């Protein structure tokens, strides 16, 4: 579902995940999409990523950036992500990833 | 209610640190040492925070305790928390009997956390006593203090000594068991209170919640790391609030780390009354607390939103215990 935008293609999401997943698998984790609602994609990181102190880097750096490229995706949420938005935005700027603001 | 937020105090105590508690045949040293240690600590926290209770060593008068909680503060619900340290004490450091008397004085507003020790009392006795405290006294949780004296201590991941307790807790319908971790009372060694033994227990009993008190201080990093990895581990904050007034910056760091790595769903407010009897300043402090911009920017700690405050104030502890707060709100005539 997309609010006011193009529909989100399941293939598009899978293609984005195909870019991200090898990076995550290389660290002993995995990623899955647990919800798509009104343009908001919610992902869950599993395995070694579940309680990794660097989960904010993974999320703000690659996961959100790749998924936001999929037409219709307005926002990307990640369960277990507790860092403040200003922190995530700072990380995104440092990494040259998609900014939050 | 504080500004529309339900306040569930996770830890109030009916302690007795008087000489009446010296076990016959004991020289009483450990009772006196604890009293002196605690006096030093509460005097320290009172330098910048709410005044301590000058008669802290005696059990509180029940009417006075109820007034302190429900008339002089915005507390809606409280947990009378036992401390089952028996070895040199006649009835235990925080006797279950006194906790029960407090709970009985106001059963709709004060719940009971019982306590047993499988190493000191023997496993069979501890299991039977758990059942009695739940069935006769209505205990909804159990607290454990895992070091009694030299040669008498136990681990939460001990399959022979501890796992029968967790099986019994599940059988009795208990959703959360709780642990004193870190800061040793009287002369026990601090390493006996490391939180590390919670890991296998939490992994092997995913249907049971494990509450760690005091952030395991001084093992705060270990405690937060463990809670970040096990979704059935809760952080219960008594002493954090009492220490906040003394060391606000350090306490904000600890809380910020916990919120960043564990999240806001398993962190619980507790006042540690009645050693510190002025409860409202803790409630007011939490309601007004902000995470400084500098700590958010430099350390990534989240902003202290109203949603986070409301969860810490009571929703989390109720969830961990399996208590329906909406039903409690309705029972007390409070708006949802």
TrEMBL record, chain A:
It holds the Pfam family NifU. Residues 14-76 form the NIF system FeS cluster assembly NifU C-terminal domain. PANTHER family: IRON-SULFUR CLUSTER SCAFFOLD PROTEIN NFU-RELATED, NFU1 IRON-SULFUR CLUSTER SCAFFOLD HOMOLOG, MITOCHONDRIAL. Belongs to the NifU family. This is NifU family protein. It comes from Mesorhizobium escarrei.
From TrEMBL, chain B:
Residues 103-316 form the Amidohydrolase-related domain. It comes from the Bacteria. InterPro entries: Amidohydro-rel (IPR006680), Metal_Hydrolase (IPR032466). Signal peptide: none annotated. This is Amidohydrolase.
